[in-house]
Amino acid sequence: xxxxxxxxxxxxxxxxxxxxxxxxxxxxxxxxxxxxxxxxxxxxxxxxxxxxxxxxxxxxxxxxxxxxxxxxxxxxxxxxxxxxxxxxxxxxxxxxxxxxxxxxxxxxxxxxxxxxxxxxxxxxxxxxxxxxxxxxxxxxxxxxxxxxxxxxxxxxxxxxxxxxxxxxxxxxxxxxxxxxxxxxxxxxxxxxxxxxxxxxxxxxxxxxxxxxxxxxxxxxxxxxxxxxxxxxxxxxxxxxxxxxxxxxxxxxxxxxxxxxxxxxxxxxxxxxxxxxxxxxxxxxxxxxxxxxxxxxxxxxxxxxxxxxxxxxxxxxxxxxxxxxxxxxxxxxxxxxxxx
Amino acid sequence: xxxxxxxxxxxxxxxxxxxxxxxxxxxxxxxxxxxxxxxxxxxxxxxxxxxxxxxxxxxxxxxxxxxxxxxxxxxxxxxxxxxxxxxxxxxxxxxxxxxxxxxxxxxxxxxxxxxxxxxxxxxxxxxxxxxxxxxxxxxxxxxxxxxxxxxxxxxxxxxxxxxxxxxxxxxxxxxxxxxxxxxxxxxxxxxxxxxxxxxxxxxxxxxxxxxxxxxxxxxxxxxxxxxxxxxxxxxxxxxxxxxxxxxxxxxxxxxxxxxxxxxxxxxxxxxxxxxxxxxxxxxxxxxxxxxxxxxxxx
Lengths: 339, 298
What we know:
Oligomer: heterodimer
Helix content of chain A: 25-40%
Order of helices and strands of chain B: HHHHHHHHHHHEEHH
Number of helices of chain B: 13
CATH superfamily of the largest domain in chain A: P-loop containing nucleotide triphosphate hydrolases
Shape of chain B: elongated
Largest interface: A-B, 63 and 50 residues
Largest sheet of chain B: 2 strands, antiparallel
Strand order of the largest sheet of chain B: 1-2
Number of strands of chain A: 14
CATH class of the largest domain in chain A: Alpha Beta
Strand order of the largest sheet of chain A: 6-7-8-3-9-10
C-alpha cells in the first residue's frame, strides 16, 4: 500500500533564504506523524509544499501515491489542511463556510448536507453553526477549521502547529481528538515546536533543523539511540562553584557516569548523562555522602526528545527557538504566507 | 477551546469521519465542477453584500448625489452650451452612469486582496478546484452584477430628475456598454490585487487613478470646453468611449451604430466604433492579467 505521504529531497528557497535544503520523510497510513523543529526550521514551508500552496524548487511529493506536482487536483481531494492561523470569513455562519467548503471539494449536495451534519456533531458545533463566525471564540474558530478540514473525508489531515495559543485544557482536547481520528483511520500529520506534543501524540517523528532532517523514528527509538539516563543533582539549592566542581570530579570517577555538566543557570546544579543502571542513584548518593557533600535534590529520567535534538545539533530546542526568534523577519514571513 | 469538546451523539459519526468516499473518485466533470465552485464563491460574495450592504448603498447614493448636485451647479448655464440639450442633467447622466461603473469595477480587487492578506485565499487554493480562475470569475460576476444594478438605478433616478429615458434597445446598449467597461476594469483591478503587496498599495493605486481618469474624460464637460491637450487625453480615455455613446442615446431620438458620437482629433468615432473599442479594451485587459494570474494561481 502506498504511503499516505511521501516527501523526497524537497528543496525550496525564498529569495536568498533556503528555507528547505533537503527534506525526505514518509508517513504510513493510519499513523500520527510529527514534524518537530524550532521556528524557522522549515516545517511550515514543507507543509505548504505538501498542500500545493507553494511549488518546491526540487523534490517529489506524493499523497496516497498521487504526485502533488503532476496531479495536484487529485492530491488536494485527498488532503485536508488546517493552517496555523484560522482564516474565516467574519460575515458567514459556520454552516455557510462548510457549505462553501463542500462546493469547493465538489461534494454532491445530498452528501454535503450529511457530511456537514457529521462534522458539526463531531466537533460539537451544532449550537453555533448558524451564528456568524465573527462571533466565535478562538476555540470555536479552531473547531470550525478542523470541521472544514475533515468535511471531505481526506486520507490525510495536515495540521500546522495545532495547539499554538491554546490553553492546557484545550490542548488535551485537541490531542484526544487527533487520537480518535487516527483510530477512525485518518492519517494525521502535525508540525510542532512543542516536544511534549510530539511525544504525546506522534507514532513517528522527523526532527528537522535549518532545512534538513536530523533524525527520524518513533520517539522511543530516537531516545534509545541517544542512550543513557539523565540525572540532575543539586548539592544545595544554590551551590558555590567550588563545591559543584568538587562533586563533578568525584562523580566523573564513577564508571557509569558518561558526562557531568555544571549548569550555572540553575544554581550550579549538575546535569549527568549516565549509562542505564539500577543502582545509579544509590551509588551517587553514597559517593557524595562519603565526601561530606549534602544532596538538596536528585532526579533521574530517561532521555527526552530535547536530548535527541541536543545530541544532533549541539543545542537545545529552546536555545534554537531563541536564536531563531532573533533572526526572524515577520514581514518576510507574512509575504511568504500571502499567495 | 473555551468549552470542553462535547462527545458526539453517536459513535457512528467517528466511523463515518474517515469513510472512503466513492464519489470523490468518480470521473470529474470539468464544466459541472467549474459551475459548482464558481456559484459557491459568487454566493459567498453576495452573502457578504447582503450582510454588509454599505458598499452597495454607497455605490447607489453617491451617483444620485452627483446627479443632483452637479445638475444644480450648472442649472443656470446658458442654453445650448452643452450641445443641443435642454438641461445639464441629460448631459450628465451618461457621465455618472459610466463613472459609477468604473469606480465600482476599480474596487473589484479589494476583497481579493483582503482574502490574500488574511489567509482566506489559501483555503481556496488548497481545494481541488476545477480551475483556480473560478476565483477570479466569481469576483467578475459579482462586480458586473452590481454595476448593472447601479446603472439601472441611476437611469431611473435620472429619468425622474428630468433627464429622459432612452428606448428599450437603447437601454440594452447601455447595459452592454456598462458590461464591457466593468469587465475590462474589473480584470485590471483583479490583476493588481494579485500583483501588489498589500491593501494599502492597492487603495493608493485606486485613489490616484479614480478622479484623474474621471476628469480627463467627457463625463462632466464636453470636449469643446477643454484645452487642446486635455481634448487629446480625453479622446484616448476609455471612459469617453463608454460615455459618448450613452450620451448620444440621451440626446438623440434617432440613433444607430453609424451615428457619430465623438469628434476626436484624429477622426470621428461612431456608435459601433465605440462599442468595438470597449470590447477590444476588455479583451486586452483580460489577456494582460493572464501572466500574473498564472504566476499566482497556477
